[in-house]
Write a structure and sequence with these properties.
Two copies of one chain form a homodimer. The first copy, chain A, is 39% helix and 25% strand. By secondary structure, chain A is an alpha/beta fold. Chain A has two domains: 95 residues, Roll (Urease, subunit C, domain 1); 289 residues, Metal-dependent hydrolases (TIM Barrel), CATH 3.20.20. In chain A, the strands form three sheets. Chain A has an eight-stranded mixed sheet with strand order 3-2-1-4-13-14-15-16, covered by helices on one side. In chain A, strands 5-6-7-8 form a four-stranded parallel sheet. In chain A, strands 9-10-11-12 form a four-stranded parallel sheet. In chain A, helix 3 runs parallel beside helix 4. The longest helix of chain A is centred in the N-terminal third of the chain and has 17 residues. Chain A is globular and about 65 Å long. The termini of chain A are far apart. Chains A and B meet through helix 3, helix 10, helix 12 and helix 16 of A and helix 3, helix 10, helix 12 and helix 16 of B.
């Protein structure tokens, strides 16, 4: 009998690799890593675990990777409801941000978002927001993994006076966090319509020098594309390609308004596409062509976007809608299988971040980032397919969440967070933001 | 002080009429009816209630009206996943129904569906399925309201040998249930492509004679429309209008593939349109033009459809997606306000059933069909708009549900149902259905 830290016996396991469902298997964890995944009957003979859990009505999956968020915007949940994207940004969000955003606000908002994400199974996220150092501290404190794409934009913000200032702050952050395994700094140019060619070229040079990834909102609406074509004759995706941005280290977010050529470009350059279905619906941006992106072999990932346009941080809900929209939007009921859905929210996200050797699937040797989804709700019966129960109803419930084998959330409560006290702080700060 | 049966003090009340949110108000109930709705401070001075509830973090709404279901199909949850509509019907659903459907199966499946619907706030539903007498008994037993649209189709089914047999059974059922206030019989011709002109004409005559409503699947897919136009030159909606079917007593379900003229016809005839967004997405039928239906003044309602294509019976989830799709599908972020969403799932449903004098809004004199939605989840904070919390996140939780002032569900458990035992029966029957 080998002594190990943790053994979890589960009714079902969806390891992502291979793309199948294992029944009555166990995950064996030692020193934060998965050291075995085998039938429970065998695990019981081989291992003596300090902690031994039996989850008879749960399915285990890899921790979720939320590839696009503005975490601190949980404080702006519901601001500008029912406005289209440009008015929402220009009339509601940007004025509030310019007046209100501070290190302290971001520290609280990011911490609140991470706590909510953890209860929903997200163990890794990508953020794009002002004061990324405040987000980094919150992430380190709560023990999640993150990519922080620093906001680069050609006008003054609460965080930087211009793009050059943003770039120099990014370099400093990269130096500061390069030895933290759970935090990686990336570049976050806001969008083609707010960033100049000159700035994009500087970002590309810097990304190559420092090995940084780039995340950018791209072709979120048809009018963004139409305006660019009218002004310059060039689609934003073509322009980014001309500037050398597209590639395995580039993450194009939203990508709602795509031509066949845009999809082909993303595929050919091995770029990542990130869909944010709820945000795209709520802001009336439209439906991304996720079926076509998958068919072209693009590395498709998923994000919640910020809570101001969602209004939650729940990647499972997001994935449910992504799956339904892939079918309903394409007219193809076989579009996006549930194994593809699960891969999009785990392994594809890990790939986009360059972390797929370490996370994204439940394989021996990887970090023990694991989600247990409880399927005991009686109204899931009759149940013949646990993946359908997870994705096609709202009755599956994320229960335990582990990162590096450490329990980070259980039954909707994040570990190490006084949720009630923090909820009061959050409500108080929002009130102050509105009366300011 | 007036003695009354029940007083509910609530943080918020959304009465639907008027279309506003009341704060710190109370609903006062006696003998199953709403006898007052006033500020809590006043209610405490005027009434002495046998039961007095204080719901400090809940919003009260009218009971939900699920206008399209095949309740017994909860037993077929997940059958034929990821097939398009025609293959799903012809290869998966119809063969199983022909082999398996019986009075006993429908009795169990309908009861299970009603139990699930009750826990989600649905107090009134419309059904279209074989053995409607079994559904009626389940509904009477659990105390919900229903319209039972009997299935009329031009080929033999488990319930009727042909359309004429279905019609004569409908007449018998109408006689049997005409004195039950909570059950009303209607006619349910399956679809224009499975019902002949001759049968539609007979249904119309019968409906006029007996005062019956008619519910029918109409233009669920573009190919249904294309096939009809190719074969006859006539769109199904035009044909139904030519046959005299459209009108205030007609409920057209799905209506995904609509032309401007179809919408105008529905509006001009005061017909009801019923959207089933999750089913339409999952079967890849497409997105209904709900924004345009609302703008034209059509009485728009909502249904879950059967669990085989959904996979749950949760009208709140359905309404959330309907709202998001109205925006994302139309490109108009102001499409479908949350007050409209709530009206679609309550008063519009009541209107379609001719029950709007009695239910559909929280007004003095109406029946006390009430849902309390708990908004205490900490991750709804910051909260500035309770309706956004209900519809734009998945963290609002239907708690208490009353019909005629009697508690029918609480904390996810339906009153008078042994849920665990029934879940076992349901799982056992499904197993038998699959191995038969």
């Amino acid at each position: 009998m080998k002594s190990v830290d943790l053994q979890i016996d589960a009714r079902w396991i969806a390891p992502v690799v291979p793309a199948s469902i294992l029944e009555h298997h166990s995950i064996v964890i030692d020193k934060g890593r998965i050291i075995d995944l085998c039938p429970t009957a065998r695990a019981r003979l081989q291992y003596e675990a300090t902690q031994h859990l039996t989850l008879n009505e749960s399915i285990l999956t890899p921790g979720f990777v939320n590839l696009h968020n503005h975490a601190a915007m949980t404080l702006m949940r519901g601001v500008g409801s029912d406005l289209p994207l440009q008015r929402w940004l220009e009339d509601a969000i940007w004025p509030m941000e310019n007046a209100q955003v501070s290190y302290d606000m971001v520290a609280l908002g990011a911490r609140w978002s991470i706590a909510e994400m953890l209860t929903g199974g997200t163990t890794t996220f990508s953020d794009m927001y002002f004061y990324p150092d405040a987000v980094a501290e919150a992430a380190l404190d709560l023990g999640v993994r993150c990519q922080l794409a620093t906001p680069i934009i050609d006008f003054p913000t609460a965080w930087a006076s211009d793009a050059a200032d943003g770039i120099s702050k990014t370099v400093a952050l990269h130096d500061q966090y390069k030895h933290h395994s759970r935090v990686q700094i990336a570049l976050g140019p806001h969008a083609p319509y707010t960033v100049s060619d000159d700035t994009f070229e500087k970002l590309k040079t810097l990304a190559d020098q420092l090995g940084l990834r780039i995340q950018c909102h791209v072709q979120e609406t048809q009018s963004e594309v139409d305006d660019a074509v009218k002004a310059t004759g060039e689609r934003p995706m073509q322009r980014l390609h001309r500037l050398g941005l597209l590639g395995p280290d580039f993450q194009a977010v939203h990508v709602v308004a795509l031509s066949d050529e845009d999809i082909e470009l993303l595929a050919r350059t091995n770029s990542t596409a990130v869909t944010c279905p709820d945000s795209n619906l709520k802001l009336a941006s439209g439906l991304a062509r996720t079926r076509d992106l998958l068919a072209a072999g693009v590395n498709l990932c998923i994000g919640t976007d910020g809570a101001a346009s969602n209004n939650d941080q729940d990647l499972l809900c997001e994935a449910r809608n992504a799956t339904l929209l892939a079918k309903g939007g394409s007219g193809d009921a076989t579009a996006m299988t549930l194994q593809e859905t699960l891969q999009i929210m785990t392994l594809n996200g890990a790939r986009a971040l360059g972390l797929d050797d370490d996370i994204g699937s439940l394989e021996i040797g990887k970090a023990a980032d694991i989600v247990a989804i409880n399927l005991s709700d009686p109204f899931l019966k009759p149940m013949t397919d646990p993946m359908a129960a997870v994705f096609y109803t709202a009755r599956a419930r994320v229960d335990q969440v582990w990162i590096d084998g450490k329990l980070k959330a259980e039954q909707g409560r994040p570990a190490g967070v006084d949720v009630a006290a923090m909820a009061r702080d959050v409500q108080r700060l929002r009130k102050a933001m509105e009366s300011a």
